[in-house]
Write a structure and sequence with these properties.
The chain is of the alpha/beta class and 330 residues long. It has two domains: 29-153 and 312-326, Aspartate/ornithine carbamoyltransferase (Rossmann fold, 3-Layer(aba) Sandwich), CATH 3.40.50; 155-311, 3-Layer(aba) Sandwich (Rossmann fold). Helix content is 36%, strand content 14%. It has eleven helices and nine strands. Helix 2 (75-86) crosses helix 11, helix 6 packs across helix 7 (187-196) and helix 6 (155-169) crosses helix 11 (310-326). Bound molecules: phosphoric acid mono(formamide)ester. The site of phosphoric acid mono(formamide)ester has 11 residues, from helix 2.
Length: 330
């Protein structure tokens, strides 16, 4: 069968955070070590506590964040908006940049950066090309956060997912995690795997259609970083002791042959029967969303399903902490 989706590039290693977020671009999970994650999670905990107490925060008062999105988004756009506003900051919201900004007239990404660095203190960029965030960060003189670059990475989704897993299990060591769906194009998977590879004794099962297997470059990278990587082809090979099932959407927008997408999209569907057969009581069910049929709605009421609960809520706390740290407010 012809593969009509392109293999992803791996973002080159970026400058490490090393515990100091101020002024940093956030482009890849490869910038993080355990200490930096710990600092971020501690501040996210604080944000959660303050929000739950109803405290009004003004850490970003006087700050402006540009949200520049070249690809559609509900959660990332909404949660960065919410996080900025909840900290007393303001946003320049640009949805559909390809059609609604001067990009439609042919303006380059670099020139766009040259403008919005003057209008704002930080830029959040979603782009359809892998590596675009790194290029934009090079051009901009304000910090830039990668809100998803093509089939490359989605670091802030991974940060909130790792925070969510850590909150649930009290550790990121000794975990068994199943990833299912589109491993080739799933930028969130690429970032979460980089994060998990920082921790001890991680076992990962990858369940995907053959044409959407993780690229060998990615597979070898995580393996070299110490993750035990196991590829499986059918649900009956699922381990019964997994801590996390991280389900993902087959990404229609990455296919050049839509017939191939139609043949592939329903390969692995998470049903109540599947989770009751192979899932333990400790299991949590995660998904970066949106879902388009690969998790049946009958699963939503299962107490293990946290994709509409913890993941969404924690996204705001983690992004609040990240924005405040980068802008030097914490
Ligand atoms: N998880 C995620 O990136 O969702 P959106 O595409 O809606 O932002």
């Amino acid at each position: 069968m012809a593969i009509s989706v392109k293999a992803p590039q791996i973002n080159p290693d970026q400058t490490g955070i090393n515990g100091n977020f101020k002024g940093q671009d956030i482009l890849s999970l490869s910038q993080f070590d355990q200490r930096s994650l710990g600092i971020l999670f501690q501040h996210a905990d604080e944000m959660a506590k303050l929000r739950k107490k109803g405290t009004i925060l003004d850490l970003l008062k006087g700050n402006i964040v540009t949200l520049l999105f070249y690809e559609p988004s509900s959660r990332t756009f909404g949660s960065f908006s919410s996080s900025t506003l909840r900290l007393g900051g303001q946003t320049i919201p640009i949805h559909d940049a390809k059609t609604s900004s001067s990009v439609a007239k042919g303006e380059t990404l670099e020139d766009t950066m040259g403008v919005f660095q003057t209008y704002s203190d930080l830029i959040v960029l979603r782009h359809s090309e892998t590596g675009a965030a790194a290029n934009a960060a090079n051009a901009a003189n304000v910090p830039l956060i990668n809100a998803g670059d093509g089939i490359g990475e989605h670091p802030t989704q991974a940060l909130m997912d790792l925070y969510t897993i850590n909150n649930r299990f009290g550790t990121l060591d000794n975990l068994t995690v199943v990833f299912a769906g589109d491993m080739l194009n799933g930028r969130t998977v690429h970032s979460v795997l980089l994060g998990l590879s920082l921790f001890k004794n991680t076992t990962v099962y990858l369940l995907s259609p053959k044409i959407l297997r993780l690229s060998r470059q990615h597979f070898n990278l995580y393996k070299e970083r110490g993750v035990k990587m196991v590829e499986i082809e059918k649900e009956t090979d699922l381990p019964k002791d997994a801590h996390v099932w991280y389900w993902t959407r087959v990404q229609k927008e990455r296919f050049t042959d839509l017939n191939e997408y139609e043949r592939t999209k329903n390969s692995f569907i998470l049903t109540k029967k599947l989770v009751d057969t192979y899932g333990s009581d400790q299991l949590i069910l995660m998904h970066p969303l949106p879902r388009v049929g690969e998790i049946l709605t009958e699963v939503d009421s299962d107490s293990r399903a946290i994709y509409f609960r913890d993941e969404i809520e924690n996204g705001v706390y983690v992004r609040m902490a990240l924005l405040a740290l980068i802008l030097g407010k914490l």
